[in-house]
Design a protein that fits this description.
Layout (H helix, E strand, L loop, with lengths): L1 E10 L2 E11 L4 E5 L6 H8 L7 E6 L2 E2 L5 H7 L3 E4 L11 H11 L7 H11 L15 H12 L6 E5 L7 H18 L2 E6 L2 H7 L2 E6 L2 E7 H6 L4 H10 L2 H4 L9 E8 L7 H9 L3 E11 L2 E10 L6 H9 L4 E5 L1 H4 L2
Parallel strand pairs: 3-8, 3-9, 6-7, 7-8
Antiparallel strand pairs: 1-2, 1-4, 4-5, 9-10, 11-13, 11-14, 12-13
Helix pairs in contact: 3-4, 3-5, 4-5, 5-6
Length: 336
């Protein structure tokens, strides 16, 4: 659906993107994550021609948008919807009028507006807010108007620029659920940029990690959580898996702290109790949880071994036979 080929974007001497190549499959939800300044928004804006690359090509559904004339680009954008962080609603127009404005810009005949507006507002759950103004809406409702407006042209692609970063967690969850439902019902290809891995975990199929204008990792979402390959990904994953606080707990003077990762059915097995039966007391559970990612379990358990040192190596080998990964945490890692 979307192919980025060797794209560089430069503003004067400053590089926003450096030799970026990426393929985004049709009908999937792809998340792009990175800190501010990583190049996420620039990459997204290239996809609908709001920015043009300094070098390279951007191909959307077989069309190289970097070669289009202004008129042809405007026509191409009709198949690409965009949702913004700050909603970008017209404050003097009602909800219905905001959506109708998008239809007018798309060249939809005026007599078709009432029916299409009603359909779109029902789709996003705002039929009862048609005559309200943006100032009368909550943040989540405003974003739902933005989504309805982005869908006005029946797009094939929906680009989301930090669409939930201005919302509280509960509202964020409802908006993400709506996007997932729309993707499934309409067959959309969604590209979502964010700096929160929990957003990626909630609805994305694939994840792209960016740093300093480059793509440093591309992965299935579950695989990224289970085995992040880069230091930045590991930072994001530790925060999303709730490991930062528990790994900083004061360490027992003679203890060895182990971080266990479970994938698949093993996440529900009594591995620690089985190990205790074999090696005796000395393995303490400090914290852990099970996340569900793409309908698959991913378990994390932080334990500390305070038993005999001569048993430590055998214990670790035994655990590695039962779990996906055993990481021995150093004292420096525990208490930064």
């Amino acid at each position: 659906m979307i192919t980025i080929e060797r794209v560089t974007k430069r503003y004067g001497e400053t590089y926003a993107l450096r030799d970026v190549s990426l393929h985004i499959p049709k009908g999937r939800i792809t998340g792009i994550i990175g800190y501010s300044g990583a190049g996420k928004s620039t990459l997204l804006r290239l996809m609908n021609g709001l920015e043009r690359p300094t070098t390279g090509r951007v191909i959307v559904d077989g069309v190289d948008v970097t070669t289009l004339s202004r008129r042809a680009l405007q026509q191409k954008r009709q198949s690409i919807g965009m949702i913004f962080q700050q909603f970008a609603l017209l404050s003097t127009k009602t909800v219905a009028a905001n959506v109708a404005f998008a239809l007018r810009c798309a060249g939809v005949p005026k007599e078709q507006h009432p029916k299409r507006v009603a359909e779109l507002l029902e789709l996003v759950g705002l039929s009862d807010r048609a005559n309200h103004y943006p100032s009368e809406l909550s943040g989540g409702q405003k974003q739902r108007v933005g989504i309805a407006r982005a869908l006005a042209n029946d797009p094939d692609v929906l680009l989301c620029d930090e669409a939930t970063s201005a919302l509280d967690p509960t509202t964020t969850a409802s908006i993400l659920q709506l996007l997932q439902t729309l993707q499934q019902s309409l067959g959309l290809t969604i590209v979502l940029i964010t700096h929160e891995l929990d957003v990626i975990r909630a609805i994305c199929d694939d994840v792209v990690v960016m740093e300093d204008g480059r793509i440093i990792e591309r992965s299935d979402v579950y695989d990224l959580f289970a085995c992040p390959a880069t230091e930045l990904s590991q930072t994001f994953v530790r925060e999303a898996r709730g490991l930062n606080d528990v790994t900083r707990l004061p360490k027992h003077a003679n203890g060895t702290r182990l971080l266990l990762t479970f994938t698949g059915p093993e996440a529900y097995e009594p591995i620690v109790s089985d190990t205790t039966e074999t090696f005796g007391p000395g393995l303490a559970i400090l914290g852990g949880h099970i996340l569900t990612i793409q309908n698959r379990p991913l378990g994390t358990l932080l334990v500390e071994w305070t038993g005999p040192k001569e048993c430590e190596g055998v214990l670790i080998d035994a655990l590695r036979q039962r779990v996906t990964e055993v990481e021995v945490l150093s004292h420096e890692r525990l208490i930064p």
